[in-house]
Amino acid sequence: MTNYLDFEKPLAEIEGKAEELRALARTSEGMDVEDEAGALDRKAAELLRDLYKTLTPWRKCQVARHPERPHCRDYIDALFSEYTPLAGDRAFGEDEAVMGGLARLDDRPVMVIGHEKGNDTKSRLTRNFGMARPEGYRKAVRLMEMADRFGLPVITLVDTPGAYPGKGAEERGQSEAIARATETCLGIGVPLVSVIIGEGGSGGAVAFASANRVAMLEHSVYSVISPEGCASILWKDAEKMREAAEALRLTAQDLIKLGVADRIIDEPLGGAHRDPAATIKAVGKTITAMLSELAKKDRKALITDRRQKFLDLGKKGLAA
């Protein structure tokens, strides 16, 4: 762990002390610190359990945004074979914030599409921090239509703060591109499953997640607006993001109750970033299970199932 969240500072101190002791022992021959370091490890493990037992919605937002969480590229590299990236929207250009292409999942041909945030300064700038421009959504439309034409299931991995709000993006039809992507999600006649692997922000997420089945990682979030944006609008104060996060009901646990998400994928204790391999494996099992649920549905049934899911939103959980 190189990045600790604000609420993890006490944990950072304990784990840091344990590592200092072990580093000292490595430079001092014959020095035995394992008993003391082990005691600190146990204390850290207990504190970690306590911290993550009752995470507030705002803290879940922080975990969902952790820079060391596995990103779209990590899932594609680990879960899919023969991945062949497809680029461009055939109208303007390529958007690096959106990855997509043909691949195999357990030897089954699929189309996989997702937001990629990047994992260091250079790649984050290249990927625009996962905020897609219109050409990214138009590329997604192109790939979904291709999958529909060849009968390939579509898998989307959602991790974006929202669509890019820049001047150029608006000039090129950002809202129309998002609407078109959402429409395409609802209209294709092949299985479409989506996993919220980090942030699911605004229409930029809905454009990929209007799916037959939506799964969310345990500490992921999915909402119409970020807590900071909501607080700026409602209270004219972005510092009220904690209150906004509570009101938005953006956690996986809330969205299961509301019928927005269909299942929650458990994360390792301390979040996906503490054991990326285990998280990726769990996501892979869930995707396979969701595709199996839809395997026997014909084209008409898949479209009806997907549209009905969204028509039913708002019918349960709102009084909770």
Please characterize this protein's 3D structure:
Strand 5, helix 9 and strand 6 form a beta-alpha-beta unit. Strands 1, 2, 3, 4, 5, 6, 7 and 8 form an 8-stranded mixed β-sheet that branches. The mean pLDDT is 92. 50% of the residues lie in helices and 15% in strands. The chain contains 14 helices and 8 strands. The protein starts with 8 loop residues before the first helix and ends in a 9-residue tail after the last helix. The chain has 320 residues and is an alpha/beta fold.
Unreliable segments of 5+ consecutive residues: none
Query: What is the count of DSSP helices, taking H or I runs of 4+ residues?
Result: 14
For the largest beta-sheet, the strand count, sense and barrel status come to: 8 strands, mixed
Q: Looking at the structure, what is the overall shape?
A: globular
Average pLDDT works out at: 92
List the helices and strands and how they pair.
Layout: H1 9-27, H2 34-53, H3 57-64, H4 72-79, E1 81-85, E2 98-105, E3 108-115, H5 121-126, H6 134-150, E4 154-160, H7 167-171, H8 174-187, E5 192-201, H9 202-209, E6 213-217, E7 221-223, H10 227-234, H11 241-248, H12 252-258, E8 263-265, H13 276-294, H14 299-311
Helix pairs in contact: 1-2, 4-13, 6-8, 8-9, 10-11
